[in-house]
Amino acid sequence: MNRKEKKGRTAADILILLGMLALLSVICRLWPILLLMILGIFAAALKTLCSRPDKIEVLTPVPLLPEPKPNPTIKDLEQMAYSIIQAKITELVVKDYPEARWVWETPDAMQEIMSGGEVFILLNRAGGYRRAEVLHRNLQVAGIDYQPEQNKEPVSPEPEGDDGFDTEPAADNYELLAFEWSEAHILELNERCNEAIGQGKNEVLIPLEELPSPESWPDICRELERAGLDRVKIVTDGITIIL
Q: N or C terminus of the chain with fewer C-beta within 10 Å?
């Protein structure tokens, strides 16, 4: 409080005191004293008005500090490492076979990587390789070990036609790839369907990034229907499971 404000405060106290004395004079019918009191009240009022501060200082609120970002949890770090590992595998596979697609052989691949176990991927359009081992160390992918597919039974040579030319090779069969992919992802798909039902959704989309070659999608739909997902259809962006 500055000097001018102190004077104004004193004048206000005097004005209150004179008002009380004036009221007492009216009660006691002391008219001469009442006249003096009125003059004193008038003078005190003038002094109070002259002593008012020129401007009122407005206090600026101190801005609040931003809330600190929460520290990442172990689950967040695992998800980050999992994404980096998948991106590295894709980079190595595409480098060797640009048109290749791959999926995890088992749905618990991340747990195996965390525990240091062996993990494998299933391949398509990879120069005849259908399976490969992911070489990893300390949550880092060191390389891809492609494993040639071994036939369980010896294949007899195809007889030549009457005209001396070999017969036409059989078309690619994607039933095995569809079966292996469905077996590896059926538990995860069931969980995603349950979450979608809880959120009130009517369908679940399996994006093409998670699927192998589009030629295998009809076989995958049949395998998913055989696993209990009754309504499955192929769309432009992948495969849709209708709930």
A: N
Q: Is the pLDDT of residue 153 over 80?
A: no
SS3 39: helix
Given CA atoms 87, 90, 91, 92 in this order, what sign does their dihedral have? positive
Query: Angle at CA 131, nearest 5°, toward 221 and 233?
Result: 10
In terms of pLDDT, which residue wins out, 204 or 5?
A: 204
> What is the pLDDT confidence band of residue 4, given thresholds at 50, 70 and 90?
low
pLDDT, residue 7, reads 57
At residue 155, the pLDDT reads: 41
Which amino acid appears at position 7 of this protein? K
Token pair recorded at residue 18 = 């004179």
Contact in structure between 113 and 85 (CB atoms under 8 Å):
yes
Is 217 within 8 Å of 239 (Cβ atoms)? yes
Using DSSP bridges, classify how beta strands 140-147 and 131-137 pair: parallel, antiparallel or unpaired.
antiparallel
Q: Which of 52, 63, 113 is nearest to 83 (CA)?
A: 113
The overall average pLDDT reported for the chain is 75
State the CB neighbour count (10 A cutoff) for residue 117. 11
